Q: What sequence folds into this?
């Protein structure tokens, strides 16, 4: 509103046209958008550590295992028809009194073609609560089980995801996972171990 | 002058003007779109790069793991081929589904050569350290029957520290 200089007041409407020059910002966008599109990551990759039961690497995590944790061994059989958890536990968390050891077995068959992973995690959470120092679990996997199922089972055993105050938190369960094939008998694996001497000689490895 | 969309017409000669029309491009929606796109892309921007040879035929499984991949030797296992650092080393795996032997000689040879190369480099370059780490990139449909042979072979070829490459689950 603009007051007039005379005594009679009258209103005049002034239309101000302010055009913002968008050219520089468009130039910026044209440079930034292709650059970011080229470097955009739509699928993030991650690593999932695994060990072989015979590998010396198990010794790396074995420092804790050498001390009694209360669990002698924890095995998860992963088969096409479901899961089976076997463990040798001690009533004494120190694990020194051998008489107190107890074998436990939980059978978790497929539930409408799905692995009972939630049920498995409930059992593992209880184990972790009773034996917090134990970190290892051995997977004994049947030949027909797919890699996707193995990764899902590893996720279930590695950590528990829960919500606290609206935030996702994680709690470690049994992160040292050894992948193995089932045994034929005690301690004898199904697959044939072939020597590497011939190839090593060919490559000149001593 | 009144501006109506793309047309600029004179106030007094709106209907009976000379037909003069200058088209002014409206950039506002385009700027809006670019702003949304820019925000979305900035949110997805990753400063750390994942250095991996991605094999197109491999669809990796999803995991909750947040652990970062370290650049090292990569073994990719597709349904019909095995790659080492992006190079095909085995292109027919049909017999390997029935084979009871765990060691895959061709893969072993390739990995062992890599290990020897790194060991030599370790001697020459003081700051270089051969960690024995290997990344396994496998298709989610691969049966353990095949995967266990790859894992066993890698372990025998001086690569006992195994990292399974997965897609991060949200």
A:
């Amino acid at each position: 509103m603009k007051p007039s200089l005379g005594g009679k007041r009258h209103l005049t409407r002034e239309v101000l046209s302010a055009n913002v020059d968008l050219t520089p910002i468009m130039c910026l966008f044209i440079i930034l958008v292709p650059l970011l599109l080229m470097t955009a990551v739509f699928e993030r990759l991650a690593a999932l550590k695994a060990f072989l039961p015979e590998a010396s690497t198990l010794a790396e995590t074995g420092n804790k295992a050498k001390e009694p944790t209360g669990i002698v061994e924890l095995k998860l059989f992963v088969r096409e028809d479901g899961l089976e958890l076997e463990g040798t536990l001690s009533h004494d968390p120190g694990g020194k009194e051998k008489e107190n050891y107890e074998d436990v077995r939980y059978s978790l068959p497929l539930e409408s073609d799905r692995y009972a992973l939630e049920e498995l995690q409930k059992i593992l959470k209880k184990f972790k609560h009773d034996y917090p120092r134990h970190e290892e679990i051995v997977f004994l996997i049947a030949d027909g089980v797919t890699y996707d199922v193995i990764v899902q089972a590893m996720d279930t055993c590695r950590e528990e995801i829960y919500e606290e105050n609206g935030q996702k938190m994680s709690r470690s369960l049994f992160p040292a996972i050894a992948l193995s094939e089932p045994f034929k008998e005690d301690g004898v694996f199904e697959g044939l171990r072939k020597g590497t001497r011939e190839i090593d000689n060919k490559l000149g490895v001593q | 002058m009144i501006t109506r969309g793309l047309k600029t017409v004179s106030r007094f000669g709106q209907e009976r003007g000379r037909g003069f029309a200058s088209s002014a491009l409206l950039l506002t929606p385009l700027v809006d779109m670019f702003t949304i796109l820019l925000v979305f892309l900035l949110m997805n921007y990753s400063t750390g790069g994942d250095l991996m040879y991605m094999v197109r035929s491999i669809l990796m499984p999803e995991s909750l793991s947040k652990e970062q991949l370290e650049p090292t030797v990569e073994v990719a296992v597709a349904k019909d081929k095995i790659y080492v650092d992006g190079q095909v080393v085995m292109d027919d795996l049909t017999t390997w589904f029935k084979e009871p032997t765990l060691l895959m000689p061709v893969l072993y040879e390739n990995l062992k050569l890599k290990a020897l190369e790194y060991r030599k480099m370790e001697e020459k370059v003081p700051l270089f350290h051969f960690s024995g780490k290997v990344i396994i990139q496998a298709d989610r449909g691969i049966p353990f029957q095949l995967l266990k042979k790859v894992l066993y072979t890698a372990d025998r070829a001086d690569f006992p520290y195994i990292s399974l490459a997965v897609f991060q689950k949200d």
